[in-house]
Amino acid sequence: MGTIRHCVVPAAGLGTRFLPATKVLPKEMLPVVDRPVIEWAIEEAMAAGALEMVLVIATGKELIQAHFERQPELEKVLEARGKKAELAAVRHSQDMAHIRYVLQEKPLGLGHAVLCAADVVGDNPFLCMLPDDLSHAEPPVLAQLRKAWDGVQSTVLALMRVSGDEISRYGCATVSESRGRLHRITGVVEKPKPEEAQSDLAIMGRYVLSPGIFDALRRTPAGEGGEIQLTDGIATLLGAGEEVWGLEFEGELLDVGTLDGWLTTNVRLAHELGRAPALRGALG
Ligand code: UTP
């Protein structure tokens, strides 16, 4: 097994929870304060030491690619007008990372999207993150997971405690031994019924995955809705005898994949970053 180089970002989903805004515009291109969601994700991956980004996209999501390409005409205009800060921002997005794109031809689920990155990642462990949540933590959530990986050298998932019936909206982890906030995972179930949930530990969209996940996903049958679930792939990995750990990360993940979450996160971050002074008055 090699070393971590890649961060895989599955971004081929349909974004049905955010229609009609996402009918044409990929949800990853919606702005949070001054930049699209996908830029926040890449910043977090870079902070966790990713050397190469692997964005899994679908047909119709080419705007994501365009955002990270050079826009010479725009640069020329900004240069001529002396708009230095704007020019730096435009150049930053094209220089911020080495990005490869992989096409998921059909929306066959998160597990299938991860599997689409297998050839690029090869036999190496890798970072993986869902851009639907923004890290609001120091160090960022993915960097916390990477540090935990350095200790255990096996798959690490992000865990968050949730209350009551909420666990039914997430993958749920059963754990045994604990080292502080790091727990050894013995079982995972996608969206359990509240009465069947074995714990209050929800699996969140940040992972360090061993390359064994690719074989596990190939052997994982499609579940609900014909989709291959990443959680089911992790269950297959556990069944094959691989160690899986879960880190109760510090800080928060802020939802930007639903209208409610996106609005709340925008208002909160704009306020915290001092980017919308008028909000102070408007919100009382
Ligand atoms: P979601 O479950 O949020 O699905 O996917 P979605 O299609 O993006 O959005 P909704 O639920 O319809 O509103 C979780 C993550 O997995 C990716 C998504 O892009 C998102 O990052 N995904 C999901 C894929 O890349 N391919 C898929 O087939 C499904």
- Rg estimate, integer Å: 19 Å
What is the total number of structural domains? 1
Order of helices and strands: EEEHEHHHEHHEEHEEEEHHEEHH
Q: Main β-sheet: number of strands, strand sense, barrel status?
A: 5 strands, mixed, barrel
Attached small molecules:
uridine 5'-triphosphate
Oligomer: single chain
What is the average of the pLDDT values?
95
Named CATH topology: Spore Coat Polysaccharide Biosynthesis Protein SpsA, Chain A
What would the principal axes of the Cα set say about the shape? globular
**Helix and strand composition category:** alpha/beta
Count of helical stretches: 11
Query: What is the distance, rounded to the nearest whole angstrom, between the alpha carbons of the first and last residues?
Result: 55 Å
SS elements, strand count: 13
Strand order of the largest sheet: 8-11-9-10-12
CATH homology superfamily name? Spore Coat Polysaccharide Biosynthesis Protein SpsA, Chain A
Q: Tell me the strand percentage band.
A: 25-35%
CATH architecture heading: Alpha-Beta Complex
Q: Considering DSSP H and I runs of 4 or more, what fraction of the residues is helical?
A: 25-40%
CATH class: Alpha Beta
| Unreliable segments of 5+ consecutive residues | none
Walk me through the topology.
Elements: E1 6-10, E2 31-32, E3 35-36, H1 37-47, E4 52-57, H2 62-67, H3 72-80, H4 84-95, E5 99-103, H5 110-115, H6 118-121, E6 126-129, E7 133-136, H7 141-152, E8 155-161, E9 171-179, E10 182-190, E11 201-209, H8 212-218, H9 230-239, E12 244-248, E13 252-255, H10 259-272, H11 277-283
Parallel strand pairs: 1-4, 1-6, 4-5, 8-12
Antiparallel strand pairs: 2-3, 6-11, 7-13, 8-11, 9-10, 9-11, 10-12
The chain binds uridine 5'-triphosphate.
Residues 10-18, 56, 104, 107-110, 112-113, 130-132, 257 line the site of uridine 5'-triphosphate (UTP).
